[in-house]
Every structure is written in C-alpha cells, then in structure tokens.
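call fold(seq) -> tokens
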Amino acid sequence: MQTISLLDCTWNKNQRKLYTYSEIFGGGFPRVFQVNSPYTGRTVEFRPIGPKHPLFDEDGWDGELAVYESQKGDLDPIVCVISHAY
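ret:
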C-alpha cells in the first residue's frame, strides 16, 4: 500500500476534503492508499467510496477522477478526491 504525504495534498477545511493528483500514484487511481501528516504523525487509510455515498458516480467520473473516504474510526470522515493533473 502506497503512503503519500499530506504535503502532496490540498486541504479544504470547510468541506473536509483533500485534493491530490493521480500522477503521485503513477498516473492511475490506487485501490487503497494512506496519507501521512508530518504535523501530527498520524497516518490515515483511504478506500474508494461505495454506491451509498452521496458523492458516488455510477459512471466512475469517466475515469477522470476518483473519490475516497478515510477509514480511521476516531476521526470524522475525510474525503479525498484524486484527479489527473493534465
């Protein structure tokens, strides 16, 4: 499982969303990944959202982006959106 730094992401505090680019993952969308915070030392695992999530898109966003949600039970859920930079 690949771990990226929080510094590779943009954080939207109001929406509780992280944004990053697929190029960090070799141009694709990982099945599972982790984000590590250099500020707190915490590492949080992210998995793709499912059909019951309000941001789920049946067409898979046409392969242009993927949406994930944090799996850490002691934190409120965080959404991570990965898109292509180009």
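The two ends are 25 Å apart (CA to CA).
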